[in-house]
Amino acid sequence: MSSTSNRRILLVDDLPAIHADFRKILATPDETDDLDALHAGLFGEVQSAPTEGFEIDSAYQGDEAAIMVEQAYGSGRPYALAFVDMRMPPGPDGLETIELLWQRDGAVQIVICTAYTDHSWREVLERLDCGDRLLILKKPFDSIEVYQLANALCAKWNVARKLTLHLELLEATVQERTADLQTEVQVRRKAETALRLRNQAMESAVNAIVITTFGHQDALIEYVNPAFERITGYAAGEAIGRDMRFLQRDDRDQVGLQDLREALLAQRDGHAVLRNYRKDGSQFWNELYIAPVSNDDGKVGHYVGVMNDITVARENQRQLEHQANYDILTDLPNRALLQDRMAQAISHAQRVREHFAVLWIDLDRFKYVNDTYGHAVGDALLKDVSNRIKAALRGSDTVARVGGDEFVAMAVGLTSPLDADAIGHQLLAAISLPFVSGDQELQVGASIGVSIYPEDGESAEILLKHADTAMYNVKERGRNDVQFHTLAMSESVRQRATLENDLRLALGRSEFRLDYQPKIQVNTGRMRGVEALLRWDHPEHGLVSPARFVPLAEDTGQIVAIGEWVLRTACAQTQAWHAAGYPDLTVSVNVSACQFRQPELVDTIADILAQTGLEARYLDLELTEGVIMQDRDDVIETLRSLKKIGVTLSLDDFGTGYSSLSYLKRFPIDFVKIDQSFIHDITTNPSDASLTKAIITMAHSLGLKAIAEGVETDGQLGFLAKHRCDEVQGYLFSRPVSSTIIDAVLCGSFVLPSSDLPDHCHLHTVLLVDDEPNVIAGLLRVLRHCGYRILTAHNGAEGLDLLARNEVDVIVSDQNMPGMSGVEFLRLAKDIYPESVRMLLSGNVDLPIAIAAVNEGAITRLLRKSYDEGNLGEFIEQAILRKERGDDSERPAAPSRKDVQGSVECGKSSEESS
Ligand SMILES: Nc1nc2c(ncn2[C@@H]2O[C@@H]3COP(=O)(O)O[C@H]4[C@@H](O)[C@H](n5cnc6c(=O)[nH]c(N)nc65)O[C@@H]4COP(=O)(O)O[C@H]3[C@H]2O)c(=O)[nH]1
C-alpha cells in the first residue's frame, strides 16, 4: 500500500461494541483469527488506535461525526469512508448524519449499516443525490465482506483522489496556457487595432497619400487613399500601376522637380511644390513630401508621398501679397510697391546712365466733388482718374496711389529730363477731361510736381519729397500746372517750349544754312571732301548750336523735313562745286535716327540725287552707332538699299556707344569716324592712344577707312598719321565754314594751314628733351656724326607732341625740368610708345623716384650728366640694335658704374642700379 494512500475510516455508531467489531474486522486479513482477542484487548480503551492497514476513528453520534469529518477535511487528511449506523439515539439518525457529513466533505464515501428491511429511507437517499458515494451493509456483517468493502472503497477513494489531483493539475496547466493565450491574443488584437487605426487614418486623411515602388526609372503607384482620388479626380484603379509623374504635363522642367530628383537619387526625404493637373485637366498646386520606406533587408523598396492641394492657400497668399502692395480702390500700386519700383529704376538708370522722372499728382477740387456728390461718386472719379493716368503713360512706367487724391507717376527711359514736362502736361490733359456721373458732368484738375533722377536726388525718398514740394509750389501758384523741383529745370522747359515753337517756323523763314568742314586725306594732305553741318540763325538768339536744336527737332519729328532740306542743299552745293571744276569733292551729311526710320528715306535720297544731278558716290551719309546697332533686319535692309543706289556710309562718333568693331562686319559701312573725345587727349592719355590705334588697325582689317574728327594739334595729327589713319577733320585745318570759303580754298586763293605731316624717312630718330639749351647743344655735338635724325624738345609737353608726330626710336630726357619731370615724361612715353628706348639724364638723381621708374620699366637706362661722349653714342646704338632685334630680355651685360661713367643699365635690381 502506498504511504500516500488514504485509508482513514470513520466509524459512526452509538454502540461501542459495533466499533470494536469493526476495528477487529478491519485489522489485516491474516490476523483475522486473532481479531476477537485484539478487539477484546483494545475495545473501549483506545477509540482511535490505529488498525494496521486502516486508520480508524470512532464517533458515537452523528453531529460528533460531522465535526470529525470537518476537521479531517480541513487538515487535508479527509476520511475516505465512513460506516454509519442507521439508528443512533438520541442524536441524528443515519440519514441525517449522512447529510451532515456530506455537507462537510462531499467526497467521503458512506456505508450504511442497518438490520432493517424497511427501505422507506431510500427516497431520502435519492434526494441526497448519493451516486456511488453510498453503499448499504446489512447487519449482521460478514467480516470479510466488510474488510473487502473498506479496502475497495479506500482504493476507489484514492483513485478518485488521484484523478482529481490530476484533473486539478490539468486544469491549472490549462488555465496557465489559457492565460498565455489570452495575453497573446490581447497583443495581437492591439497590433490589429493599431494597424486598423493606421489604415483608417490613411483612408480618412485630408492629405492625399501615395505609395509607390522605388526604382531608378519609375515610381509606380501601388496605393492611393481616398483623399488622392478627391484631389486629383482619378479613382484608385486609374492611378495604381501608373508612374507618379502622370499628374504632370509637358512642364517637366519645374524647379521643384529637380529637388525631388536629387532626393530620390540620394534615397532621402524630399519636398517640392509642383504644378499638377487633375483628371479634368484643371491645374492645382501640389505640395508634395516624399520619404523612402525600407524593406526588411534595409534597402529602399518604396516611397510614400503625402500630397496636399495648396491651390487655395497659394491664391490666398497671392491675394494677401496683392493687398499689401496695391491700393484696394484703384488697384494701383501703393506707396510701398512704388518705392520698390523706384529702387529698381534707380539701379537700372545708374547702369545705363539715363534719367527718369517722378511726377507727384494731386487732384484739384477733389474734396469739393467728394463733399458735394458723396463718397461713391468720389471713389468712381478716383478710379476713372487712375485709369486715365495709366493710359497716358507707357507700359514700362509706374503709377501709384499714395494718398486720398494723390498719385505718383514714374516715367522711365527719358531721352531728356525735359521730356517729363510733356508727360506732365499729357497727364493734366487726361485728368481734366470731363467725368460723367449719372446726369452730372464733373471736372477736376491736377497740380503736378516733378523731380528728376539723378539731378533732384539719388534715393526714392528724396525724389518723392522733391516732387511733393514742387507740387505744393504749383498749388501756391494757382494750380493746374506742372512744375519741376529745380527752378532751372522749369526755366529750361520754358525755353525749350519757345525754341520748339520757333523751330517749327525756322524752315519756312529760311533761318537755316549749311557750313562745310574740310576732310583731309592724311597721305596726300589734300581736301577730299567736306562735311555739311547745319546752322540755325535764330532772329533773336543768333546762332543756335545744332547740339541744342537737332535733338529737339528729332523729338518733334521736324528733323525729317529739315534733314531733307540739308540733303538737298548739300547735294546741290556739291554738284555746283563739281560743275565749277572740282569734280572729286565728296559731301558728308548727318542722318538722324528719326530720319533713318522713314520708309521713304531711300527714295527721297535717290530723288534728291536725281534732282540735283550729283552722282551718288559723292554723297556720304553719316549715321551714328545708335541708328545702326539695332541689328534689326529692316535696318540692314535700308543700309543695303542705300549702298545699292551708290552712296557711301560712315559710322559717326565711333567708340561712344556699345558697338564693337567686329560687329561692324555685318553692315555695309565704308568709313569709321573715331569720336573726337578720343582724339582730344590722344597724345597724353595712354588709353585713348591705344584705343585709337586699335580702332584704326581693326577698321583696316575689315577693309574700312578710318577718319579722325576733332583734330586740333600737330601732335594729334602726327600720331594719327603715324598710325596710318586715312583722313582727318578738325580745327587744325579748318572750322566748319561757309560754302564761299570752301570756294576760296578750292580755287587756291585760301590755303589751309599746312600740316607738319611726318617725314617717313628711315633714319633712326633720337629725341633729346632738356630745358637747358647748352645741354641740348652738347648732346647734339656728341651725336652729330652718328647718323641719327635728331629731334629736340625743351620740356615734356613738347616731347610728347614730337613723339606723336614722329616715329622715335630713342628718347634721352633730362630729369629736372619745369612742369613735367623727366620720369613723368618717360612714364607717359612708355605707356603710349612702349617700343621706344627711354634714357634718363640727370646730374642729381633722386634715387627712390628713379628706382621706382626703373622697376616699372619707364626707364631703360639711367645716364649721369657727366656722360662720356663716345659712350653715349655707343649706348644709343646698342639700344637701337636691341630694339630692332626685338630683344628686350637679352640685353648686353650692363656696363658697371665704373666701366661707363655715369651710365646704369636698367632691368637689374634696384640695388644694382643704384
Ligand atoms: N571741338 C571741336 N569740334 C569740332 C572740330 N572739328 C569739328 N568739330 C565739330 O564737331 C561736330 C562734328 O559733327 P558731328 O559729330 O556729326 O555732330 C553734329 C551732328 O551730330 C549734329 N548735326 C550737325 N548738322 C546736322 C545735320 O544737318 N543733320 C543732323 N541730323 N545732325 C546734324 O550736330 C552735331 C554738332 O555739330 P556742330 O556743332 O557743327 O559740331 C561739329 C563740328 O563743328 C574740332 O577740331 N574741335
TrEMBL record:
It comes from Duganella violaceipulchra. One of its GO terms (molecular function) is cyclic-guanylate-specific phosphodiesterase activity. Residues 354-487 form the GGDEF domain. Residues 218-267 form the PAS domain. Residues 883-900 have a biased composition (Basic and acidic residues). It holds the Pfam family EAL. Transmembrane segments: none annotated. Residues 268-322 form the PAC domain. Residues 883-914 are annotated as: Disordered. It comes from the Bacteria. InterPro entries: Biofilm_reg_signaling (IPR052155), EAL_dom (IPR001633), GGDEF_dom (IPR000160), PAC (IPR001610), PAS (IPR000014), PAS-assoc_C (IPR000700), Sig_transdc_resp-reg_receiver (IPR001789). Keywords: Phosphoprotein. GO terms for biological process: cellular response to nitric oxide; phosphorelay signal transduction system. The modification 4-aspartylphosphate is found at residues 85, 814. NCBIfam families: GGDEF, sensory_box. This is Diguanylate cyclase (GGDEF)-like protein/PAS domain S-box-containing protein. SMART domains: EAL, GGDEF, PAC, PAS, REC. The lineage of its organism: Bacteria, Pseudomonadati, Pseudomonadota, Betaproteobacteria, Burkholderiales. Residues 496-750 form the EAL domain. It catalyses: 3',3'-c-di-GMP + H2O = 5'-phosphoguanylyl(3'->5')guanosine + H(+). Coiled coil: none annotated.
